[in-house]
From TrEMBL, chains A, B, C, D:
SUPFAM superfamilies: ACT-like, Formyltransferase. It catalyses: (6R)-10-formyltetrahydrofolate + H2O = (6S)-5,6,7,8-tetrahydrofolate + formate + H(+). HAMAP family: PurU. It comes from Rheinheimera tilapiae. InterPro entries: ACT-like_dom_sf, ACT_dom, Formyl_transf_N, Formyl_transf_N_sf, PurU, PurU_ACT. This is Formyltetrahydrofolate deformylase. Residues 5-85 form the ACT domain.
Length: 277, 277, 277, 277
């Protein structure tokens, strides 16, 4: 008995669930968990179905393609671990939490490599027997730097890139190479405090709650589809530095939680939003 | 176009979703929201389906009865407001929040009457032009008191009884008259601090978080299926009285949230637990 | 034995706490709770001291004035309830929660009157035997409208104005009349979604958490010192309307919590921030 | 300029703060942060004062001893890191988070060694160049096992022992050796689900929130003074195993947060409670 997850996104129409579940039934597949969502504004239908049984992927997808309306996307996903390359700069906490959760089995990821524009996190990465590539951004143009990263990334053929406090803005060309496949942690409760130094901004504004946001990267800075947000209470005794320190726990927790959702194939991108089934 | 919600609970079997959604499709009903759950331990299947269209309730249910396995329960629920009778003692905050939310349209409930074993909340109830029955527990036996309440309740034929800080324990005989239809708010994070004076208990234990629990009432004190829980941070500066005061907000918020879930037909009782779809 | 609270704000200097607490001791006053804070950036010192004893306000303040550095502000506050006028538009939930909490004794406020630019909340206000002034903004200029409100407010001589979902922006002239004495609830997690329709903005951005902010009103829209913020989780199934509904609980809870802090004389304004002792 | 923290616990009496702060002033010490608390039930006074200046510890403490009432405890703490020995069993997440936070500088601790009753976490510990002592509990009596641990611990002379998911109950004799110096993480929201398998208990009870509790260890199982509690929402789809997985994040966050409070000398033990200044 195998387990696979069927992911469908298509224009909504009457009888869709019946058609899809009939096909699964015809294939003798048991549905162990099923979630659907219809977006009332766009009329898009989203469905995530965990199936159990003996799979004939080819005929199952063929049957689905016959039944589904034009403009449908469907995918049958097995249980292989997602492969990621992690990009970092100097801060250890997000990388550290991912490494630790993969190590202790909480997060089912295959970390192919870590790439840093500083050498700081090499030692940490190598503690976990993973390759670390230090690709300096100094002395090269922005375009060249990104090209060096892309070349290094390409050899690993990752499913996702994870920006674990990678403190450089990626160009639209870079982003276009991995659409909806780059996950970033922004250290604010977006859309508050877009851009640089969010904790400094938060401190100056005198907020009573700070937050962090995991999102897919798009061309527009910090405007991509949000996967997960978390917050933490602060008060007047917190300096910008204290907020940054308190924020680290939020950042790492929200990033690994977002990765968990992605790993379980629960995140659909819908325009600049996510649907999480 | 009408809107109704189909609620199904039955033993799980392969093809169930296909069968049920086929029947809906055959009846030309559109599924606007659908949620299912299979409990892996008991093998029970739960489904909540929001439907839109022209309903022929009789034939729809007949078709479902033919398709569903033995031991199934199914219900087709319209949009009529649930009718409740609220039982209270002296504290105003839970009753007050329900009254206010019904008044401002946040909570779609039909409050038939309020019954109190003290006269304290009569004035508040009558501000909202609702009948208040003061049924004193003094001078009568426990059995007689409950009988007086039951008689008063019966005339209203409520869907649910809501214990909004009703500070008396109901007898098994009383509970048996409204199985899975009595909703209580307990002022602790159950199962911590069962029974009387939970804030005093919480204070004595030196907890750093207090909570409240909305649950269905069963024979066993504070052991019924939990619908919703919420918490609030406290610290060493809180006296038992301060905790009780801070707890009031949690209590009222958790009770009205639980009522919202019940009102939307989202709560299934499964042994001593709830499944919320 | 009386109880009073001493509030001090002044430039920091060595020995301040010793000097102040010596004076209290000399006056035979017992300190039951004491909190201080020195803002490291501005070097401002804040102190809130709950005192118990027989007070000679005049000599106590005289002694303090001799001891405190230039530029000090000090205040000795008794236990009289703060007097407020509440401004509203159409939405009932924030007003309702304040009325209910004052009614049940959770919030020690003296509500002098409610003023609305719509008649909608008159009935609710009058249930609690409070005066409601409907001051229509139609058919008068903005300046005239504010003047009508100010005249009405003036007769009550309130300590604070509470904007309980008052959906009009107050002019700088109006605000200047009650500096640091107008408390507003903004229905977003500021500084995200400043201005109109924050839930619509939040929906469009696809956030996973919504919030509300209670703050003092200054000239700049939604830029005043933040007193309290709270949040609530949402997901892709929430429409803008659902977010607004879920937001109502956050709004009312954060507003009454902020009022509680103000009522207990715990809020100091420090530039565009608050210090809460 | 040095920085030290003065910790005082004594019977409350009028003028205490004045006396203490006068002594600090006489010693030319600047108070950068000060917090006090008087427990109204016991009449105990607690004070934590951050001081800056040139310290003469001996005469400062002498002056304080003259001024403070009988039954006082006072301590002047420098900025040296606390030294801890960590006890573990098999689960990596709490140990991992401490290691990572010490590594990245978020948690200022000196980890002297890790001791495990299983060999599982040796590799992880050694990644961070720390000694790991595997002390098997099999083949020895409970008393012998504890004696072996105590001997190993003794050579490090730690300030605190941290039980980072050490799954054995310590005997009163062991606990008596490190009173108020053993910190445990219990994987439930105490006092709910005392003892073994709290997630299984939580699952069986059908709770909607799980939690974790960091506390000092006393003779009574899971009854010691609570330092910190945190919670996380769950629902009917969580198996006991899912709850345990979700709980890991809560556990590690609450334990490192509690350690942070201890490291900053903010935790006073007061009977079976804590006062956190």
């Amino acid at each position: 008995m195998e387990q696979k997850t069927l992911l469908i996104e298509c224009p909504d129409s009457k009888g869709l669930i019946a058609q899809i579940t009939n096909i699964c039934y015809k294939h003798q597949l048991n549905i162990t968990r099923n979630t659907e969502y219809v977006d009332p504004d766009s009329g898009r239908f989203y469905m995530r179905t965990q199936l159990e049984g003996i799979f004939n992927d080819h005929t199952l997808l063929l049957d689905l393609d016959r039944a589904l309306p034009r403009g449908s996307e469907r995918q049958l996903v097995g249980t292989a671990k997602k492969r990621v390359v992690i990009l970092v700069t100097k801060e250890a906490h997000c990388l550290g939490d991912i490494l630790m959760k993969v190590f202790d089995g909480s997060l089912e990821l295959d970390i192919a490599a870590v790439i840093g524009n500083h050498p700081n996190l090499q030692a940490l990465t190598e503690k976990f027997e993973l390759p670390y590539h230090f690709i300096d951004h100094q002395g090269v143009s922005r375009v060249e730097h990104e090209q060096l990263i892309l070349t290094q990334v390409a050899q690993y053929q990752p499913d996702y890139l994870v920006l674990a406090k990678f403190m450089r803005v990626l160009s639209p060309d870079f982003v276009a190479r991995y659409p909806q496949r780059i996950i970033n942690i922004h250290h604010s409760f977006l859309p508050a405090f877009i851009g640089a130094h969010p904790y400094r901004q938060a401190f100056n504004r005198g907020v009573k709650i700070i937050g962090a946001t995991a999102h897919f990267v798009t061309d527009s800075l910090d405007e991509g589809p949000i996967i997960k947000q978390m917050v933490s209470n602060v008060d007047h005794t917190y300096s910008a530095k204290d907020m940054a320190k308190a924020g680290r726990d939020v950042e790492k927790n929200v990033l690994t939680k977002a990765l968990e959702l992605v790993v379980e194939d629960r995140v659909f991108v819908h325009g600049n939003k996510t649907v999480i089934l």
